[in-house]
Amino acid sequence: MSKDEQKEEMLSFHSERLAIAFELVSIMKGNTITIYEDCHYVIKLMSKIVGCKIVVRDCGRFHHFKNDICSCSDYW
Question: Is the pLDDT assigned to residue 36 strictly greater than 70?
Fold first, then answer.
């Protein structure tokens, strides 16, 4: 299996990461990204790196990530 195939296989289990990556190449800095999955730690980090607000819905609430902080105070 090639490195590209390995990367693709690893990412296929994290659709929320793919969705965020797609949005990041499609939007301007400062806009809001909304994703309906959960990968809490990574999304917190992404919000800090890219400097935008990311909204994620899990089965119980909406999480608003901005500058490595989540509105749920990490209670997920």
Answer: no
